Amino acid sequence: MTLIVWDVEKNVVRKARREDLYEAIYMITQLIPLGRVTSYKNISEILGVNPRLIGQALKNNDKPIIIPCHRVIASNGYLKNYSRGGIVVKKKLLVLEGVIVKGEKVSRKYFIDLKKILS
DNA sequence: ATTTGCTCAGCTC
DNA sequence: GAGCTGAGCAAAT
């Protein structure tokens, strides 16, 4: 479960550096459309890494404005955490975008499969 | 709805 | 190098 990349400068295959991996995660996160959500797992499957790594990356995000990390939730539909304001803020943002959140859970129908977008 | 076991990158020492 | 910690997941209860 490790992201392998082609190093253009050194002309070799190697393990992705942390910054490379995080950068990839941020880019993919930006593909989630307004009013939709996806799971940590969905992103992790695209990159072939551990789902927990996605959470690590989003938590440590250095571009809080342009990265809609509130649209990334647990695969069971629950909101999980949000480093900037917690679940309360995460829920508010989603509701603002038209997602119906019952308690702390989002219906399946709002999930989008990013692998299909990338196909 | 809650508990339990699994997992692995990153961090600390 | 060993041990701990999760913005997780899935199955069982």
Automatic annotation (TrEMBL):
EC number assigned by the record = 2.1.1.63
Q: Methylated-DNA-[protein]-cysteine S-methyltransferase DNA binding domain: which residues?
A: 21-99
Q: Which GO terms describe its molecular function?
A: methylated-DNA-[protein]-cysteine S-methyltransferase activity
Entry-linked CDD domains: ATase
Instruction: Give the transmembrane ranges.
Output: none
Pfam families linked to this entry: DNA_binding_1
Which reaction(s) are listed as its catalytic activity? a 6-O-methyl-2'-deoxyguanosine in DNA + L-cysteinyl-[protein] = S-methyl-L-cysteinyl-[protein] + a 2'-deoxyguanosine in DNA; a 4-O-methyl-thymidine in DNA + L-cysteinyl-[protein] = a thymidine in DNA + S-methyl-L-cysteinyl-[protein]
- InterPro entries linked: MethylDNA_cys_MeTrfase_AS (IPR001497), MethylDNA_cys_MeTrfase_DNA-bd (IPR014048), MethylDNA_cys_MeTrfase_DNAb (IPR036217), WH-like_DNA-bd_sf (IPR036388)
Q: Which UniProt keywords apply?
A: DNA damage, DNA repair, Methyltransferase, Transferase
Which biological process annotations from GO are given for this protein?
DNA repair; methylation
Which PANTHER family does the UniProt record give? METHYLATED-DNA--PROTEIN-CYSTEINE METHYLTRANSFERASE
Q: What role does it play?
A: Involved in the cellular defense against the biological effects of O6-methylguanine (O6-MeG) and O4-methylthymine (O4-MeT) in DNA. Repairs the methylated nucleobase in DNA by stoichiometrically transferring the methyl group to a cysteine residue in the enzyme. This is a suicide reaction: the enzyme is irreversibly inactivated.
What family is this?
Belongs to the MGMT family.
Q: What is this protein called?
A: Methylated-DNA--protein-cysteine methyltransferase
